[in-house]
Design a protein that fits this description.
The protein has 593 residues and is mainly α. It has 23 helices and 12 strands. The chain folds into 3 domains: 108 residues, no CATH class; 87 residues, no CATH class; 227 residues, no CATH class. A 5-stranded antiparallel β-sheet has the order 7-5-6-11-12. A 3-stranded antiparallel β-sheet has the order 9-8-10. Strands 1-2 form a two-stranded antiparallel sheet. Helix 11 crosses helix 13 and helix 19 crosses helix 21.
Amino acid sequence: MPPRIIKRSKTPMVSAGLEVRNTRSRTRSGLQDSDMLNMPMDIIHEILRHLLPHDLLSLTRTSKAFHAFLMRKSSAYYWKQSLKQVDGPLPRCPKELIEPAWVALVFSPICTACGKREAPHVYWSLFVRLCKTCRPQLVVDQHDLFRERGMDKIPKDIFVMSGRGYCLRSEAQEVIDTWKGLSKSRNKKALEQYVQGQTQHVKKLAKFQESCEGWFGYSSIRESERLEGERFEFVDSKLRSLGWGAELKFLGRGSISRGLLSVMRNYPLMNTHGPMTERRWRAIQGEILECMQEIREERRAYKWESQHPELWAYGVDMDDIALTPEICEIMNRPAKECVHQHSFMALQAQVGAILEGWRSRVCNQLRDLMRSTMRFPQNVDPLELAATTFRCGDCVQTCLFFPNVVAHSCQRVRSSVTQQDTYPQSLQDIMRPFLMRLREYKLSEPACQIVRFCGRDPETTTAKEMDALDIRLATQGSAIMTWRAAIIEQTQSNHDMSVWRIADSTDTANAKKHESKIVQNNASWSCRKCIPPCLHSDLEEYLEYHHGVAEKEDMTPVFSSRDICANSAYKLRLPDFEVVKLIDRDQSCTGTD
């Protein structure tokens, strides 16, 4: 129903037929009641029609003039309008109550009997809130009621009861008197009609109570969420003022909802009722700042990791960084020399060079291993050859590609070798840096067979050149795979080369389509548009939200070093192109860890 049209008038409320006395009290905002009462009626009308029910109820209690005005029958529109603004499935005002009484029952915590004490529990089907003092006087427990003499003859389902099994004494007595009167009159038909009508009335109120309790539960949850949000906003502002903005951004990528909330829910004082106060903040400040310090370290580690996604395949982590010469130089300084946080922060600009130095040293170790048993042309980097694979010295894996071999778990174990310097020696029991534990290098004949089958020379063809061929290999129609997966397959099974074939264009196109889905589902993505580059898991959501585009040209897929996708070693079963895991005869995953 459209709002009732009210003729605009400049007549103040005090002149609209209302008697106003003693209206000099002040509201919380500092305004006197008379200030608002002297406003034109059209302004008051616009204010009232936008108030929420509990605000309207509070206004009726500010002065006699407002109470008289809002309790008029003609003011019912304001109450109905306010109820429409309530969030959630609040039932309509029952016919037993007028709108102001319904609002008071729902939103006022005051006892409806005495009007003085708080009564948090509502007896919805009885339309009352009762405090502990008034409850024994006005309601009776159903067990006490039916314990009385003669009550066993009266049907229980004609009594209106609350969810906790209470009846209003006055209503229960009225039902008892009516039933006894009809029983004595021997009017069986009238008694049956009364019982039937009363039973339907009870069922209707029971359904009404269920709806009210459903809304009350929903409202309580929303209120708890609102207070929780305010508490976390308070903590968020405190942390930002203390210089933790970068950590908060790292946690939630600009929003506290996904990051700070998940961290701070562990603190009991963050989950108590009521708003966060300065006193509560002081009680938890120390613990939260310790937590934020840990997050700061995590952010710094993530920063250098996300800026160098090309090193993911090497499995580089903080254990490797901690043992670089630059860090060891600081840690091995004389005891008299002060070493603090700023000593390490001075290396921040050199992180790229430190990581590159570590990568270069690791690669040289692998090259030395290869050249100790084989000769390679001087203009060829043996690590770049397509036929280069390594065999683990501790497990059954015999087809480890470069650079993923560096991330293999057997190459990252606690060191038992005695170190000359004190600092590395003290960390050998807790850190797992790269320590080469490979078998003597031997040229892989299965790898050479696959490279030759593709029409290339295994002694000079690089992995990049094999990738550029962009072909897929198949085995007698049973599976289709990339050239790296074919090397793993040939290493495991030693097929006769006659079973291999170059896949046709149709199967190759379908295989690429399914491989793209694997990449989409498993990769993190490095964004070139972000400065510094950042890693993201949800590609489309990130591009749309941060850059307003859905193109993927500026995104590079990055895989965990232990992911089979990191090698681009895909094997798909034909004809359904279902992914097949690469497992060797010893039931150990080959190619990755």
